[in-house]
Amino acid sequence: MAFTLAACAGDERFRKPVNDEIQRDLALVAVVQCLIDSGVIPESELSARSWLVNGQIQPDAAFTTWVASHKDTAYRGKSLSEWEDEATAGWPGWRCPL
Q: In terms of pLDDT, which residue wins out, 75 or 20?
């Protein structure tokens, strides 16, 4: 059994989902940071957020909860989910268009 696990662990096919998830997470943080830096997300949405430290996102469980509750919120004509999809598709070359 240990041999099988070791063989699978070295197989790129088994790492791809983790890499995709990490890529999506990085893109999401970049999108929300873009929206914050551009003043698109109202200050009232940002006050006293544990994940926003000195204007920079430091993701935590509360960030995940905030994102989940705002995934359908429109920012500059696109939902947060649409922003995330676009950034993920262009990652790592995606840049804030605002």
A: 75
* CB-count exposure of residue 61 (10 Å: 0-12, 13-18, 19+): exposed
- 76 dihedral zone (left: phi>0; alpha: psi -120 to 50; beta): left
Global confidence as pTM: 0.81
Q: What distance in Å separates the CA atoms of residue 65 and residue 2, rounded to the nearest whole number? A: 37
In sequence order, what are the beta bridge partners of 4? none
CA angle 90, 95, 98 (to 5 degrees): 125
Residue 75, H or E segment: strand 74-75
**N- to C-terminal Cα separation, the chain:** 51
| Residue 80: how many other CB atoms lie within 10 Å | 22
| Tokens 């893109």 -> residue | 27
Please name every residue paired with 75 in a beta bridge, in sequence order, or none if there are none. Answer: 78
